[in-house]
Fold this protein.
Amino acid sequence: MSEAHDDGRVLLEIKGLTTAFSLAEGDFNAVDNVSFSVKEGRTLSLVGESGSGKSMTALSVMGLVPSPGKVVAGEVLLDGRNLLDMSAREMRKIRGAEISMIFQQPTSALNPTYRVGTQIREVFKLHRDWTRQVETEKVIAALRAVGMPDPEARLRAYPHELSGGMAQRVMIAMALACEPRILIADEPTTALDVTIQAQILELIRELQSSSDTSVILITHDLGVVAEMADEVAVMYAGEIVETTDVETLFDEPLHPYTKGLMGSVPVLGDPRPRLEAIPGTVPNLTELSVGCRFASRCQARIEAGLTVCQTHHPELVEVRPGHAVRCWLYSGQEVAE
Amino acid sequence: MSDVIMRASALTKEYQVRRGALKGTATVKAVNGVNLDIRRGETIGLVGESGCGKTTLGRMLVKLLEPTSGKIEFDGKDVTNVRGRELKEFRRRVQIVFQDPFSSLDPRARIGDSMAEPLLHHGVGDKDERQERVAKMLEMVGLHRSHATRFPHEFSGGQRQRIGIGRALILRPDFVVADEPVSALDVSVQAQILNLLADLQQELSLTLVFVAHNLAVVEHISDRVAVMYLGRIVELAERSELFSRPTHPYTEMLLDAVPASHPRNRRPRAPEASELPSPLDPPAGCLFHPRCPIFEAGFCDEVVPPLHPPPSEPSRLVACHVRIREGQTRTFDEGESQK
């Protein structure tokens, strides 16, 4: 479990990352001035709903932004090297070896025409100079490490022969085959049943603690956050609106959106007569107002009688050590209580 | 009027599946001999993992799927094989809300027309009256009457689900199956739809069958909950009973798997890779026995456990030899640790 404000070594630092899209509907920043850092052996969770920019942040880090998107500003520093300055060739050396990524739909991320073993072997061919026999041993070891029953036989399986949970284990085996220092997991359990989700989360946790891998976990599910994260960044409409350690986030969420999310999710074992729904919907990124992007859905703004929210965009301000929030309610003043 | 509005007896749905070029076909029992009494005015949750048969059961109840065998009674009348006028009357009173509000609306029809279609089909009112009913229903589900002239693509996911609910309710049915109505929606919008469903259920005294995989959502909205596993109901109980003292080992496993609600309540979990057995080749005896922590050889793997009340608890039904014999339920310590 996390110690608040524990100072681990920063492994990955993201500064002012901005990823822009230019579409027929208009121009917008899917990721807008996003900064965070990931410490060695820790898990940072990016939380948000659809369109919040959490997946695009990950793809930007990996250098995999789909066309016509483009990273237009910022730095992604791994050990002080800016990944955004690297050539495609250099990035291929980084991906899979230093940073790996797993996706929501394991079955669509695997190639349906190749056997599982062949696909994992591919990673070794790219990053290691091993004989075929060593490769095979390592593939089996990788499958065994992710708890795949009968790994020698599963080498020869095609993706369609695997259940969703087993396919996700293969993805994780492939991602961790070369012992990367950072694993980006984009909704790794969203497509899975709850008992399989528990297995996969436990697996990620075990592998992380045995190898000191850092994890960036992208999810919309606050339960997964509570279960896995050390630090959390809450995203809304392309921006980080609140960031702190996981316990503080659940004990004292500050941003009205974070509070709203927590109130709107039913909690097992704590049935409330009524959920506190957030009114309205996530804004269209091509039609953002000049003010706070959450203003149109924000009850706290109305209760506090703030008008600045609709006219001025709030900055992400650290209101106490390790806890930053993008909200006029907390700007330029100490947090009450 | 009887307390039971819908009764399913030994309801079964089988599918023939090709196993491979030379292996012939196999039979999958998507729903396997389900008995279920649904009480007038209650919200009953059907919960389970993918492949458990909850959607198939829901669709048989509204007669979108023909059962292979078994019986469905609605309001005391056998409706298993009704046709013609009787079927039409059944359809007026029994409706369904689908999971995907994007694919269940005709993209080329105006919302008002989509919603008026059931009225037209059942010959309700004239054009003006129908328009007025659509307008009233739009307001009832939290939209505006002017939305009637718009097309589906002009609405967000949450709004489309409101339209789906409005269309299901426009004939003033007594019985509605909602099949995963919020799982395609963003978290912040889910709560709006859950609140809306709960309000409408009260207001219109609906009987609601809520099919979902999300246990917290089911707990939130249901009066009673049925847990399904590989086509069978394995436990059925009042909401508070089921969640505070789950009795079937599968219910326990499901509840245990739900992530903590607070980082302080994290628990170490067994990462063993137990999975749903293939429904093509289901285990003998209790279907859950290969994954069951309390399974007893020579008993659970041979005899199918019936869905029975444990001796001390007449309001609960559980299909487990061991738990019925123990005659008592273990206390579920989860209750305290999860705030």
